[in-house]
Amino acid sequence: xxxxxxxxxxxxxxxxxxxxxxxxxxxxxxxxxxxxxxxxxxxxxxxxxxxxxxxxxxxxxxxxxxxxxxxxxxxxxxxxxxxxxxxxxxxxxxxxxxxxxxxxxxxxxxxxxxx
Amino acid sequence: xxxxxxxxxxxxxxxxxxxxxxxxxxxxxxxxxxxxxxxxxxxxxxxxxxxxxxxxxxxxxxxxxxxxxxxxxxxxxxxxxxxxxxxxxxxxxxxxxxxxxxxxxxxxxxxxxxx
Lengths: 115, 115
Hints:
The structure holds two protein chains of two kinds. By secondary structure, chain A is mainly β. Helices cover 0% and strands 57% of the residues of chain A. Chain A has strands at 4-7, 10-14, 19-25, 30-38, 44-51, 56-59, 62-67, 72-77, 86-94, 104-105, 109-114. In chain A, the strands form two sheets. In chain A, strands 2, 4, 5, 9, 10 and 11 form a six-stranded mixed β-sheet that branches. A five-stranded antiparallel β-sheet of chain A has the order 1-3-8-7-6, with no helix packed on it. In chain A, strand 6 (56-59) and strand 7 (62-67) form a beta hairpin. Chain B contains no helices and 13 strands. In chain B, strands 2, 4, 5, 6, 9, 12 and 13 form a seven-stranded mixed β-sheet that branches. Classes of the chains: A mainly beta, B mainly beta. Chains A and B meet through strand 4, strand 5 and strand 9 of A and strand 5, strand 9, strand 11 and strand 12 of B.
């Protein structure tokens, strides 16, 4: 059974720091991995999607990497800003569910960036 | 346009009421999803529609009844709900390719309170 773990559960950093959020999954048979951001009481905003054949994706100050063989992904945020404060969720799409589109989510990392 | 629109944003209902949540997307996506999210937890999949047909039902109680009238619309009909059904209900959509579903896009959610 696929399980997704995110460490740390919460993180507080001063503005300007570079930071790394971690996501690990137990079964490497995935179709893709997606990182989301969620502000309190709001929906999920897609940040980056990495297909299983890719090693990384970049969007602005965000860079996500994927090491499928070791079951790990990292989300790197450069020069953090208070507006980056949110909960970050990673989700994998297992191969077995590919046609159905089911995502398995981690519990999320709650990020607070202090001015 | 990467927008998924959900209405209403907030809904309060009694246990004997019948209400509906609505979701709309105009991205041409042929897979649409309902998720339920409790506070401080990741989203949980409820239903998946693929090409307007129900493809996944995650053993959801029959008091939740999904409907996909056309490729742009997804409804969730609610009847005889329980207070523990209070949650944020999220709609999502994704493109479907021969390799399966692609990136998921979420709406802002409908906050449901059952009294």
